[in-house]
Amino acid sequence: xxxxxxxxxxxxxxxxxxxxxxxxxxxxxxxxxxxxxxxxxxxxxxxxxxxxxxxxxxxxxxxxxxxxxxxxxxxxxxxxxxxxxxxxxxxxxxxxxxxxxxxxxxxxxxxxxxxxxxxxxxxxxxxxxxxxxxxxxxxxxxxxxxxxxxxxxxxxxxxxxxxxxxxxxxxxxxxxxxxxxxxxxxxxxxxxxxxxxxxxxxxxxxxxxxxxxxxxxxxxxxxxxxxxxxxxxxxxxxxxxxxxxxxxxxxxxxxxxxxxxxxxxxxxxxxxxxxxxxxxxxxxxxxxxxxxxxxxxxxxxxxxxxxxxxxxxxxxxxxxxxxxxxxxxxxxxxxxxxxxxxxxxxxxxxxxxxxxx
Length: 357
Prior knowledge:
Number of strands: 12
Shape: globular
Mean pLDDT: 95
Structural class: alpha/beta
Strand content: 5-15%
Order of helices and strands: HEHEHEHEHHEHEHEEEEHHHEE
Protein backbone atom coordinates (compact mmCIF):
# COMPACT_ATOMS: atom_id res chain seq x y z
CA UNK A 1 0.00 0.00 0.00
CA UNK A 2 1.29 3.45 -0.90
CA UNK A 3 2.07 5.89 1.90
CA UNK A 4 -1.01 7.98 2.79
CA UNK A 5 0.98 11.22 2.82
CA UNK A 6 2.29 10.46 -0.66
CA UNK A 7 -1.28 9.87 -1.81
CA UNK A 8 -2.42 13.18 -0.32
CA UNK A 9 0.38 15.01 -2.09
CA UNK A 10 -0.42 13.33 -5.39
CA UNK A 11 -4.15 13.98 -5.03
CA UNK A 12 -3.49 17.65 -4.26
CA UNK A 13 -1.40 17.88 -7.44
CA UNK A 14 -4.22 16.18 -9.34
CA UNK A 15 -6.70 18.69 -7.91
CA UNK A 16 -4.65 21.57 -9.27
CA UNK A 17 -4.31 19.82 -12.60
CA UNK A 18 -8.07 19.24 -12.75
CA UNK A 19 -8.75 22.91 -12.05
CA UNK A 20 -6.54 23.65 -15.03
CA UNK A 21 -8.57 21.25 -17.17
CA UNK A 22 -11.70 23.23 -16.31
CA UNK A 23 -10.07 26.21 -18.03
CA UNK A 24 -8.34 24.30 -20.80
CA UNK A 25 -9.81 20.83 -21.39
CA UNK A 26 -7.79 18.18 -23.23
CA UNK A 27 -9.81 15.80 -25.39
CA UNK A 28 -8.50 12.25 -25.09
CA UNK A 29 -11.52 10.00 -25.59
CA UNK A 30 -14.31 10.54 -28.11
CA UNK A 31 -17.16 8.08 -27.68
CA UNK A 32 -19.38 7.20 -30.61
CA UNK A 33 -22.71 5.61 -29.70
CA UNK A 34 -23.35 3.96 -33.06
CA UNK A 35 -26.77 2.61 -32.11
CA UNK A 36 -29.25 2.24 -29.28
CA UNK A 37 -30.25 -1.17 -30.61
CA UNK A 38 -29.05 -4.24 -28.75
CA UNK A 39 -29.49 -7.99 -29.04
CA UNK A 40 -29.44 -8.27 -25.25
CA UNK A 41 -31.70 -6.66 -22.65
CA UNK A 42 -29.53 -6.21 -19.56
CA UNK A 43 -31.09 -5.53 -16.18
CA UNK A 44 -28.55 -2.78 -15.42
CA UNK A 45 -28.47 -0.95 -18.76
CA UNK A 46 -27.88 2.74 -18.12
CA UNK A 47 -29.10 3.63 -21.63
CA UNK A 48 -32.22 1.45 -21.40
CA UNK A 49 -31.50 0.01 -24.83
CA UNK A 50 -34.52 -1.53 -26.58
CA UNK A 51 -36.80 0.59 -24.38
CA UNK A 52 -35.43 3.80 -25.88
CA UNK A 53 -34.95 4.14 -29.63
CA UNK A 54 -33.00 6.66 -31.66
CA UNK A 55 -32.28 7.73 -35.20
CA UNK A 56 -28.80 6.76 -36.40
CA UNK A 57 -26.21 8.74 -38.26
CA UNK A 58 -25.18 7.49 -41.69
CA UNK A 59 -21.65 6.41 -42.65
CA UNK A 60 -21.36 9.58 -44.74
CA UNK A 61 -22.28 11.75 -41.75
CA UNK A 62 -19.72 9.97 -39.58
CA UNK A 63 -17.02 10.39 -42.20
CA UNK A 64 -17.78 14.11 -42.55
CA UNK A 65 -17.69 14.56 -38.78
CA UNK A 66 -14.49 12.58 -38.26
CA UNK A 67 -12.81 14.46 -41.09
CA UNK A 68 -13.69 17.70 -39.32
CA UNK A 69 -12.29 16.40 -36.01
CA UNK A 70 -9.09 15.28 -37.73
CA UNK A 71 -8.62 18.64 -39.43
CA UNK A 72 -9.57 20.78 -36.41
CA UNK A 73 -8.13 18.77 -33.52
CA UNK A 74 -6.01 15.95 -34.92
CA UNK A 75 -5.83 12.22 -34.29
CA UNK A 76 -2.55 11.79 -32.40
CA UNK A 77 -3.90 12.11 -28.84
CA UNK A 78 -7.56 11.23 -29.38
CA UNK A 79 -8.99 7.71 -29.30
CA UNK A 80 -12.41 6.73 -30.59
CA UNK A 81 -14.40 4.55 -28.19
CA UNK A 82 -17.13 2.69 -30.07
CA UNK A 83 -20.20 1.63 -28.17
CA UNK A 84 -23.96 1.25 -28.28
CA UNK A 85 -26.27 -0.68 -27.76
CA UNK A 86 -24.36 -3.36 -29.58
CA UNK A 87 -22.29 -1.67 -32.31
CA UNK A 88 -22.03 -4.80 -34.45
CA UNK A 89 -25.77 -4.76 -35.09
CA UNK A 90 -25.14 -2.04 -37.66
CA UNK A 91 -24.83 -3.60 -41.12
CA UNK A 92 -22.62 -0.66 -42.11
CA UNK A 93 -20.38 -1.01 -39.04
CA UNK A 94 -17.25 -1.88 -40.98
CA UNK A 95 -17.83 0.89 -43.51
CA UNK A 96 -17.86 3.41 -40.65
CA UNK A 97 -14.82 1.98 -38.94
CA UNK A 98 -12.74 1.66 -42.09
CA UNK A 99 -13.40 5.37 -42.61
CA UNK A 100 -12.12 6.06 -39.10
CA UNK A 101 -9.01 4.00 -39.77
CA UNK A 102 -8.38 5.70 -43.11
CA UNK A 103 -8.61 9.10 -41.39
CA UNK A 104 -5.93 8.06 -38.90
CA UNK A 105 -7.99 7.39 -35.76
CA UNK A 106 -7.13 4.75 -33.19
CA UNK A 107 -10.22 3.02 -31.90
CA UNK A 108 -11.49 0.47 -29.44
CA UNK A 109 -14.91 -0.96 -28.68
CA UNK A 110 -17.17 -2.30 -25.97
CA UNK A 111 -19.28 -5.26 -27.07
CA UNK A 112 -21.20 -8.23 -25.74
CA UNK A 113 -19.22 -10.31 -28.30
CA UNK A 114 -22.20 -12.52 -29.14
CA UNK A 115 -21.93 -11.56 -32.81
CA UNK A 116 -18.19 -12.19 -33.07
CA UNK A 117 -16.81 -15.27 -34.79
CA UNK A 118 -13.45 -15.87 -36.49
CA UNK A 119 -14.46 -13.96 -39.61
CA UNK A 120 -15.76 -10.93 -37.67
CA UNK A 121 -12.70 -10.92 -35.39
CA UNK A 122 -10.39 -10.79 -38.41
CA UNK A 123 -12.45 -8.01 -39.97
CA UNK A 124 -12.21 -6.02 -36.74
CA UNK A 125 -8.43 -6.26 -36.93
CA UNK A 126 -8.41 -5.20 -40.59
CA UNK A 127 -10.61 -2.21 -39.73
CA UNK A 128 -8.05 -1.02 -37.18
CA UNK A 129 -9.59 -2.02 -33.84
CA UNK A 130 -6.90 -1.96 -31.17
CA UNK A 131 -8.81 -2.73 -27.99
CA UNK A 132 -12.05 -4.37 -26.97
CA UNK A 133 -13.82 -4.92 -23.66
CA UNK A 134 -16.37 -7.73 -23.49
CA UNK A 135 -18.99 -8.12 -20.77
CA UNK A 136 -19.10 -11.36 -18.76
CA UNK A 137 -21.34 -10.80 -15.76
CA UNK A 138 -21.20 -14.03 -13.83
CA UNK A 139 -21.20 -17.75 -14.43
CA UNK A 140 -23.38 -18.99 -17.33
CA UNK A 141 -26.80 -19.10 -15.65
CA UNK A 142 -26.24 -15.83 -13.78
CA UNK A 143 -24.86 -14.04 -16.85
CA UNK A 144 -27.76 -15.11 -19.07
CA UNK A 145 -30.34 -14.14 -16.45
CA UNK A 146 -28.71 -10.74 -15.89
CA UNK A 147 -28.45 -10.00 -19.59
CA UNK A 148 -31.77 -11.70 -20.37
CA UNK A 149 -30.19 -13.59 -23.26
CA UNK A 150 -30.53 -17.31 -23.93
CA UNK A 151 -27.11 -18.93 -24.35
CA UNK A 152 -25.53 -15.48 -24.05
CA UNK A 153 -22.58 -16.65 -21.91
CA UNK A 154 -21.52 -19.33 -24.38
CA UNK A 155 -21.85 -17.00 -27.35
CA UNK A 156 -19.89 -14.25 -25.57
CA UNK A 157 -17.12 -16.64 -24.56
CA UNK A 158 -16.93 -17.97 -28.13
CA UNK A 159 -16.57 -14.37 -29.29
CA UNK A 160 -13.71 -13.77 -26.84
CA UNK A 161 -11.97 -16.93 -28.00
CA UNK A 162 -12.26 -15.78 -31.62
CA UNK A 163 -10.67 -12.43 -30.70
CA UNK A 164 -7.84 -14.19 -28.87
CA UNK A 165 -7.19 -16.44 -31.86
CA UNK A 166 -6.48 -13.36 -33.97
CA UNK A 167 -3.79 -12.54 -31.41
CA UNK A 168 -2.96 -9.11 -32.82
CA UNK A 169 -5.09 -6.71 -30.76
CA UNK A 170 -3.43 -4.38 -28.29
CA UNK A 171 -5.86 -5.42 -25.56
CA UNK A 172 -8.67 -7.94 -25.13
CA UNK A 173 -10.34 -7.21 -21.80
CA UNK A 174 -13.24 -8.77 -19.92
CA UNK A 175 -15.46 -6.49 -17.84
CA UNK A 176 -17.64 -7.88 -15.05
CA UNK A 177 -20.42 -5.84 -13.48
CA UNK A 178 -20.58 -6.97 -9.85
CA UNK A 179 -24.03 -7.28 -8.30
CA UNK A 180 -25.36 -8.60 -5.00
CA UNK A 181 -26.23 -11.82 -6.83
CA UNK A 182 -22.92 -12.53 -8.56
CA UNK A 183 -20.30 -11.23 -6.11
CA UNK A 184 -19.85 -14.74 -4.70
CA UNK A 185 -18.80 -15.96 -8.17
CA UNK A 186 -15.66 -13.83 -8.54
CA UNK A 187 -13.29 -16.65 -7.61
CA UNK A 188 -14.89 -19.05 -10.08
CA UNK A 189 -14.75 -16.42 -12.81
CA UNK A 190 -11.10 -15.79 -12.03
CA UNK A 191 -10.30 -19.48 -12.48
CA UNK A 192 -11.90 -19.35 -15.94
CA UNK A 193 -10.26 -16.11 -17.07
CA UNK A 194 -6.86 -17.08 -15.66
CA UNK A 195 -6.64 -19.89 -18.22
CA UNK A 196 -7.21 -17.42 -21.09
CA UNK A 197 -4.57 -15.04 -22.52
CA UNK A 198 -6.61 -11.97 -21.61
CA UNK A 199 -4.87 -8.64 -21.15
CA UNK A 200 -6.95 -7.60 -18.15
CA UNK A 201 -10.08 -8.22 -16.12
CA UNK A 202 -11.96 -5.06 -15.19
CA UNK A 203 -14.32 -5.33 -12.25
CA UNK A 204 -16.95 -2.62 -11.75
CA UNK A 205 -19.96 -2.31 -9.47
CA UNK A 206 -23.50 -2.06 -10.72
CA UNK A 207 -24.55 1.61 -10.67
CA UNK A 208 -27.95 2.89 -9.48
CA UNK A 209 -28.77 4.36 -12.89
CA UNK A 210 -30.98 3.37 -15.81
CA UNK A 211 -32.71 0.02 -15.48
CA UNK A 212 -30.77 -0.84 -12.34
CA UNK A 213 -33.02 1.57 -10.44
CA UNK A 214 -35.82 -0.93 -11.04
CA UNK A 215 -33.80 -3.75 -9.50
CA UNK A 216 -32.64 -2.66 -6.04
CA UNK A 217 -32.06 -6.31 -5.12
CA UNK A 218 -29.02 -6.26 -7.41
CA UNK A 219 -27.35 -3.24 -5.80
CA UNK A 220 -24.36 -3.82 -3.57
CA UNK A 221 -24.47 -3.63 0.21
CA UNK A 222 -21.75 -1.99 2.30
CA UNK A 223 -20.26 -5.43 2.93
CA UNK A 224 -20.42 -6.24 -0.80
CA UNK A 225 -18.43 -3.12 -1.66
CA UNK A 226 -15.81 -3.89 0.95
CA UNK A 227 -15.54 -7.47 -0.28
CA UNK A 228 -15.19 -6.38 -3.91
CA UNK A 229 -12.45 -3.81 -3.31
CA UNK A 230 -10.49 -6.15 -1.05
CA UNK A 231 -10.74 -8.83 -3.73
CA UNK A 232 -9.38 -6.50 -6.42
CA UNK A 233 -6.60 -5.19 -4.21
CA UNK A 234 -5.48 -8.66 -3.19
CA UNK A 235 -5.36 -9.81 -6.81
CA UNK A 236 -3.27 -6.80 -7.76
CA UNK A 237 -0.89 -7.37 -4.86
CA UNK A 238 -0.44 -10.89 -6.24
CA UNK A 239 0.49 -9.35 -9.60
CA UNK A 240 -2.71 -10.23 -11.43
CA UNK A 241 -4.04 -7.93 -14.22
CA UNK A 242 -7.24 -7.08 -12.35
CA UNK A 243 -8.48 -3.53 -11.95
CA UNK A 244 -11.45 -1.40 -10.94
CA UNK A 245 -13.09 0.96 -13.41
CA UNK A 246 -12.75 4.74 -13.59
CA UNK A 247 -15.79 5.57 -11.46
CA UNK A 248 -15.78 7.05 -7.95
CA UNK A 249 -13.39 8.43 -5.40
CA UNK A 250 -12.45 5.58 -3.06
CA UNK A 251 -10.75 7.28 -0.13
CA UNK A 252 -7.09 7.32 0.85
CA UNK A 253 -6.91 3.61 1.68
CA UNK A 254 -8.07 2.35 -1.71
CA UNK A 255 -7.09 5.12 -4.12
CA UNK A 256 -4.25 3.90 -6.34
CA UNK A 257 -4.57 0.42 -4.85
CA UNK A 258 -7.26 -1.03 -7.16
CA UNK A 259 -6.40 0.82 -10.38
CA UNK A 260 -3.31 2.40 -11.89
CA UNK A 261 -4.50 5.99 -11.48
CA UNK A 262 -6.20 8.30 -9.03
CA UNK A 263 -9.86 9.19 -9.43
CA UNK A 264 -10.68 11.86 -11.98
CA UNK A 265 -14.10 12.12 -13.61
CA UNK A 266 -13.19 12.70 -17.24
CA UNK A 267 -16.63 13.89 -18.39
CA UNK A 268 -16.27 17.15 -20.27
CA UNK A 269 -12.54 17.54 -19.54
CA UNK A 270 -11.01 14.46 -21.22
CA UNK A 271 -14.12 12.85 -22.65
CA UNK A 272 -16.87 13.83 -25.07
CA UNK A 273 -19.50 11.64 -26.68
CA UNK A 274 -21.68 11.64 -29.76
CA UNK A 275 -25.07 10.00 -29.32
CA UNK A 276 -26.61 7.82 -32.01
CA UNK A 277 -28.49 10.82 -33.45
CA UNK A 278 -25.49 13.16 -33.28
CA UNK A 279 -25.97 15.06 -30.02
CA UNK A 280 -22.73 16.23 -28.40
CA UNK A 281 -22.62 15.29 -24.72
CA UNK A 282 -19.96 14.49 -22.11
CA UNK A 283 -20.24 10.86 -20.96
CA UNK A 284 -22.80 8.42 -22.32
CA UNK A 285 -23.47 7.07 -18.82
CA UNK A 286 -24.70 10.44 -17.54
CA UNK A 287 -28.46 10.87 -17.27
CA UNK A 288 -29.83 12.15 -20.58
CA UNK A 289 -31.10 15.59 -19.61
CA UNK A 290 -31.73 18.40 -22.15
CA UNK A 291 -29.31 20.79 -20.42
CA UNK A 292 -26.45 18.32 -20.92
CA UNK A 293 -26.72 18.40 -24.71
CA UNK A 294 -24.07 20.86 -25.88
CA UNK A 295 -24.84 20.75 -29.60
CA UNK A 296 -25.26 18.36 -32.52
CA UNK A 297 -22.63 17.42 -35.08
CA UNK A 298 -25.11 17.87 -37.94
CA UNK A 299 -25.17 21.65 -37.44
CA UNK A 300 -22.43 22.55 -34.90
CA UNK A 301 -18.65 22.60 -35.16
CA UNK A 302 -17.38 20.06 -32.65
CA UNK A 303 -14.15 21.90 -31.79
CA UNK A 304 -16.04 25.11 -31.02
CA UNK A 305 -18.51 23.22 -28.83
CA UNK A 306 -15.71 21.39 -26.99
CA UNK A 307 -13.74 24.55 -26.30
CA UNK A 308 -16.57 26.95 -25.49
CA UNK A 309 -19.37 24.90 -23.97
CA UNK A 310 -19.43 21.97 -21.49
CA UNK A 311 -19.23 24.46 -18.60
CA UNK A 312 -21.91 22.50 -16.76
CA UNK A 313 -19.33 19.69 -16.42
CA UNK A 314 -16.32 21.84 -15.60
CA UNK A 315 -17.04 22.54 -11.95
CA UNK A 316 -16.95 20.84 -8.55
CA UNK A 317 -20.18 19.05 -7.75
CA UNK A 318 -19.29 19.22 -4.04
CA UNK A 319 -20.20 22.88 -4.04
CA UNK A 320 -23.84 21.97 -4.73
CA UNK A 321 -24.30 19.84 -1.61
CA UNK A 322 -23.87 20.89 2.03
CA UNK A 323 -22.68 17.49 3.23
CA UNK A 324 -20.21 17.15 0.37
CA UNK A 325 -18.83 20.66 0.79
CA UNK A 326 -18.14 19.91 4.48
CA UNK A 327 -16.30 16.66 3.72
CA UNK A 328 -12.59 16.63 4.52
CA UNK A 329 -11.82 14.92 1.19
CA UNK A 330 -13.96 17.09 -1.07
CA UNK A 331 -10.91 18.41 -2.92
CA UNK A 332 -10.00 14.87 -3.92
CA UNK A 333 -13.54 13.67 -4.66
CA UNK A 334 -15.00 16.78 -6.36
CA UNK A 335 -18.45 15.25 -5.88
CA UNK A 336 -17.60 11.95 -7.54
CA UNK A 337 -18.57 10.77 -10.99
CA UNK A 338 -21.09 12.81 -12.96
CA UNK A 339 -22.97 9.70 -14.06
CA UNK A 340 -23.79 8.82 -10.45
CA UNK A 341 -24.91 12.29 -9.36
CA UNK A 342 -28.59 12.92 -8.61
CA UNK A 343 -29.25 16.21 -10.37
CA UNK A 344 -32.72 16.54 -8.87
CA UNK A 345 -31.56 16.31 -5.26
CA UNK A 346 -28.02 17.61 -5.88
CA UNK A 347 -26.40 14.69 -4.12
CA UNK A 348 -24.45 11.59 -5.13
CA UNK A 349 -26.22 8.31 -5.76
CA UNK A 350 -22.95 6.61 -4.83
CA UNK A 351 -20.57 7.85 -2.15
CA UNK A 352 -18.02 5.68 -0.37
CA UNK A 353 -17.80 7.83 2.74
CA UNK A 354 -18.69 5.59 5.69
CA UNK A 355 -18.29 2.55 3.42
CA UNK A 356 -14.59 2.63 2.51
CA UNK A 357 -13.44 5.69 4.50
